[in-house]
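Workshop exercise sheet. Pairs work together: one partner reads the sequence aloud, the other fills in the structure field after running the prediction. Swap roles for the next sheet.
Pair: D.N. / O.F.
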Amino acid sequence: MSKYYGSYPKLIKKLERKYQDYGYFYDWEEDESPYKLAKEQLELTAEYMGKQFQVYAPAPIKTGVRNMRYNIGTLFKKGKKIWKAKIWPALEPIFGVPDGAAAQKKKDAAKARKGKKGRRNAEYRDEDEF
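Structure field:
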């Protein structure tokens, strides 16, 4: 094992071949990292606090929080639209964009469109039988 110190991709491939468990050893060095443990604990705490809030908070407070989340989401969407339409086009020439970014953007958009379900073709429906 000592010959693989610092060469984690080789070690991962060796372990995968040995145990016939491909994909299991990815990110193994981060499994016990303090960041990951803290993040998991924060997620559990947030889930617990959400449940407690739903049980014990008065109805007007719940409604207010729900409205606040909706309003903040709306502001975020509007801010994102303004960023895309007005601010980023002005900053793009200053910061620049890496070569090939436009092609990658088109490729990603085509992939996203391909995955979406479209309207069903009405020609093949058998509604006239009913």
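Discussion prompt: The chain has a mean pLDDT of 80. What would you look at next?
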